[in-house]
Design goal:
With 112 residues, the chain is mainly alpha-helical. The chain has one domain (6-102). Helices cover 67% and strands 0% of the residues. The chain has helices spanning 6-15, 20-42, 50-67, 77-93, 96-102. It is globular. Keywords: Membrane, Transmembrane, Transmembrane helix. It comes from Acacia crassicarpa. This is DUF962 domain-containing protein.
């Protein structure tokens, strides 16, 4: 599947993250990856090993066992990473329900 813009990919990305628990797993994984990255800057570069392991581990778990699909990272790694941080920011600021409405999906309760 070829996408012409990040906005086109974003709509696809959100369709692959339709369940609230999938998005929560992504949030946790992204949060841990940020924490491990910061720890690598402050303490030891060894923490950097855990950044992608925690981020992708949580995300891929949610795709295989919660959402029941293949992670978009496999086909579009760069755009998936950008959209993951976009989703993280929307969840952090409480804008995820508004974005789901904008894309024409049913809003869900946010835990974060």
């Amino acid at each position: 599947m070829n996408f012409r813009s990040l906005e086109d990919f974003w709509a696809f990305y959100m369709s692959q993250h339709s369940k609230p628990s999938t998005r929560r797993w992504h949030f946790v994984g992204t949060l841990f990856s940020i924490i491990f990255f910061l720890c690598s800057l402050l303490f030891s570069w060894w923490f950097l090993v855990f950044a992608p392991l925690s981020g992708y581990g949580c995300a891929w778990y949610s795709h295989f066992f919660v959402e029941g699909n293949v992670p978009a990272t496999f086909g579009h790694p760069f755009w998936s990473l950008l959209c993951d941080y976009k989703m993280f920011g929307l969840m952090l600021t409480g804008g995820m329900d508004r974005e789901i409405k904008r894309l024409g999906k049913k809003p869900v309760l946010q835990v974060f």
